[in-house]
Fold this sequence. Notes:
With 443 residues, the chain is α/β, with parallel strands linked by helices. It is 36% helix and 26% strand. It has helices at 16-27, 29-36, 67-72, 87-98, 108-125, 141-148, 163-175, 179-188, 197-200, 203-217, 236-245, 310-330, 373-383, 414-424; strands spanning 7-12, 40-46, 62-64, 78-81, 102-105, 129-130, 154-160, 247-260, 263-276, 288-295, 299-306, 358-368, 388-393, 402-409, 412-413, 430-439. The strands form two sheets. Strands 7, 8, 9, 10, 11, 12, 13, 14, 15 and 16 form a ten-stranded mixed β-sheet that branches. It is elongated and about 85 Å long. L-homoserine is lined by residues 162-164, 199, 204, 307-308.
Amino acid sequence: MSDRRAIGVGLIGFGTIGTGVVKVLRRNADVIEQRLGAPLRLLRIADLDTETDRGVDLEGIRFDADAEGLVADPAVDIVVELIGGIEAARRLILRSVEGGKHVVTANKALLALHSAEIFGQAARRGVDVAFEASVGGGIPILRSVREGLAANHIEAIYGILNGTTNYVLSEMEETGEDFAVVLKRAQDLGYAEADPSVDVDGGDAAHKLTLLAAMCFGAELTCKEVPTEGIRGLAPIDFEASREFGYRIKLLGIAKARREPGSERIEARVHPTLVPVSSLLARVDGAMNAVAVIGDAVGETLFYGAGAGELPTASAVVGDLMEIARELRRGNAGRVAPLSYVPEMLEPKPLVPLGELHGRFYLRFTAVDRPGVLAHLAGVLGEHEIGIESVMQKGRGGARESVPVIVLTHPAGEAAVRAALDHIDELEDVTAPTRLLRIEQEL
Ligand code: HSE
């Protein structure tokens, strides 16, 4: 006999996360129903691969490759999109919304490019598009920002938003191995994709930061605008030297509000960053994520947990399903604006150019090892008003051999540092482009 209270769910994409969703819906059906007052019924699954055994019980679930049929099925109240990618996912989500269905997705890449279109369409149709799983995996960071911290002016949000790169950085530091060796291990262990670019080049973190910046600051922006630098250029020497100076290297997404009289601009950037070893973020190892949010009323908050993986991500997807199901039962879908601000208050906010940033820098020069070279480097920095806090040379080269010379600067403007490096990298004694890393002392 069918249960008329049940909420019908259709799942598109039966990979790792989709399998996790089936597992959570099955094994936690009791607590889900107790909290919801009604069962969530997974009615259909669509995936192009209908052969692979996912090791889960599919009794009572129609499983085929017909995603369009699933979206059009009147018994399905909520569509879960877990196929990833842009175009097919966008089309299926928009079609679901047009058909009056609610959507749950983990697709940060899609939302970081097309949130205005998707949320706009959802608002017009009076349906929800929920996306907690798209940032921080199992960490309920979006709901916390949107609801728990809604009373605050958010001053800054920053953190480790990508587990793959955090695993690679932790291992490089621990083992002293090269990037390529560690990346291969991450791929063998299933942390990194066969094509790891979106993770290691910082794109995934930029997608997530784009969504967080919208929620924290009402900033309408796309991930294409966020200055993004990945971790490929890091060498074992950077970890060793940073450690000796008292820092660890983390790939951070950082967004801050710059509120000045008559204007509000946003800092948003993704790059490898030196953080003090004593900071909480420095202690986040392996594939874990951590996000700090600073609000004017609440002060500092820190959210930590598994940023990826089958069950943690499924936890966020099913949490979204339950929130929408509750609203469906109460008849008040669309209760909370998806990006926290009511849509008409979201507006493009200018980004602060990197050249305007002011901070401390780690500079790794590659220079031949002969008397006077260090003085020359220091002289050029001095001409650009850049003070030196510490210097370290690793190894002994010679007039023909290069060595790394590492400098930590006093606070300086990034434009001045860039101008100095343009000059230094042209010097005869400097044999490779200088590596610049930013230091965030306060995180
Ligand atoms: N590939 C991401 C990561 C997880 O490594 O954190 C999904 O966003």
